[in-house]
What does this fold into?
Amino acid sequence: MEIILGKYGELALKGLNRNQFENSMVRTIRKRVDRCGEFRVYTAQSTVYIEPQNDDADIDLAYDEIKRVFGLSAIVKAAVCEKDLEAICDTAERYLGSALDRAGTFKVNSKRADKKFPLTSMELSREVGAYLLERHPGLKVEMSEPEMTVICEIRDNAAYVHSDQMPGAGGIPTGTGGKTACMLSGGIDSPVAAWMMARRGCDLVCVHFQSPPYTGERALYKVERLAWRLSRWAGRVCLFEVPFTDCQVSIRDNAPEDYFTVLMRRSMMRITQMIAEKEECGAIVTGESLGQVASQTMSAIRCTDAVANMPVFRPLIGNDKVEISDCARKIGTFDVSIEPYEDCCTIFTPKHPRTRPVLENIEEAERGVPDLSGLESIAAENSVLKVIHFYDEEYAL
Ligand code: ATP
Ligand code: MG
It folds into this structure.
C-alpha cells in the first residue's frame, strides 16, 4: 500500500501549543484531500500520515495538495509493509526497482524509531543494500552523493520505504497566526507579501482599491484570481474591493500635485485600517520594498505609517525585485500579476512625486482636502466582500 508522510517543520519545536498547531494542520489536510477521495489522516511521532482508504483515492492529486500545506517541512510518498527484513527488501524492490534501474548510484538509509526492531539501522541498510545490488547489477553504492537514496523507516505501526523526500511548504499551520489585513494590488509584490504572512499561519483578509471607471472589470477579476491563487495555500481568503475613485479625485483637486502619492497611500492605509478593525485583524501587510519606487522611501513610509495605529508588516522590505519575482513564480501568482491591467495607483500619479516628504507638510496639505475622512468612511462602508476558497473553480483560470 502507498501512503503520504508529512514531516513536521517548526511545529515539532512548539511546546504547549503543539496540540493546537497539530490540530490546525490536520484539519487543513483533511479539507484539502477531501476532493481527492477517501483518506485517513492521523499523526504520530512528528509525522502526519495520509492514508488512502480504497483504490479510488487519488494519491497523486492528494500529494499535490499537500505540497501547499503550511507546517510541513518535508513530504514523501512511501510504501508501507510489515516490520520484517524480508518484507522490507521485497517492498523496496517492488516500489523502487524501476527507479533504481535508471539510477547509476544509490545508498540505503535507515531510521529506526522502534528500537525493538532486531536489526540496527546500519545492519538494516546493509541488508537492504545487498539485496538491491543483487537485482540491479549495473548499480553502484555511493555514500556521499548518490543519485538515489532508498530510505527505510521503522516506525511504531509499520515499516515505510521511500526515496528522497520533497521539501514541504514550511512555515506554521494556517489558522494559528491570527488575521492580517493585506493590501493586495494586482502587482507582483503584494501577493508574495500576503503569501509570506499566510506561511506564518495567518488568515488573509485582503483589501483591494479600485477606481472605476479608470480601472475596469478585468483588473478586478485579475485580483480575484490572485486571491484564489493565494487561497490554494491559505485555504480561505477574504477580499474587500474598495471603491477608491472619490478619495483620489478629492486629493487630486485639493492638494499639491507632488503630494498626491503619499496622500493617496495614507488614505489607503486608513481605509484598510477601518476594515482591519472590523475584521479583527492584528496587523496590516503591504508589499513594499525599500527604495523600489518614490512611495517606498523611508520618509514616505514614515508618512504613511503615521496614520496607522496597528503594526504594519512589510515582509519584502529587504528583498530585491528578482527575488520577489522568483518567489511569485514559485507560489504561482507571477503570470497573473504581469497581466497588463490598469491599477488604481497609476491614475493621477504625478510625474515627479516627492521622494522625501516631510510629515508636517503632508499633514498640512491633507487638512486642505475637504471631507477626506468622510469619503474614506464611505469607501470602507461601500466595499464589496468576496470570500474565495481554493476549490472555487470560477477563479481557476
Ligand atoms: P505591487 O507589486 O504589490 O503592486 P508595487 O511595487 O507596484 O507593489 P506600489 O504600487 O507602490 O508598489 O504599492 C505598494 C503597496 O501598496 C503594494 O505592495 C500593496 O500592498 C499596496 N497597494 C498598491 N496598490 C494597491 C491597490 N490598488 N489595492 C490595494 N493595495 C495596494
Ligand atoms: Mg503596484
Q: What stands out?
A: The radius of gyration is 26 Å. The chain has two domains: 2-167, 179-389. The first helix runs from residue 18 to 33.
